[in-house]
Prior knowledge:
Low-confidence stretches: 1-13
Helix content: 40-55%
Distance between the termini: 30 Å
Structural class: alpha+beta
Strand content: 15-25%
Number of helices: 4
Radius of gyration: 17 Å
Order of helices and strands: HEHHEEH
Amino acid sequence: MVPGETSSDGAEGADGPVASQLRRGVLEYCVLALLRDGPRYGVELLQQLAEVQVMATSQGTIYPLLSRLRRTGLAATYLQESASGPSRRYYTLTDAGRRALDEFAALWPDFRMAVDHFLNPGEQP
């Protein structure tokens, strides 16, 4: 979708390329924030992200992201038996993941204000 275009129903495209690019940039930190509250398994993370429409994503996105978080030491995993099927792989936030999330949370307000400055140049914060 070209900036300023609307979809056939007249709504801005929440699943268009702009939304996808924005989601890609922050999804890792949203997942870390969800893990801050306690261990989660992949489908649970997908469900929680989908509660906010613009953050909804697919298994094809979340599982590679979770693997990357584990490889880079931002998340750890363990298997737990499930009453409703096979064992589930739970993801937890590591100390390094907490530091990365804290750094993102500290930078985010200034980043958001900077983007808002360019989008709305006449407004003062």
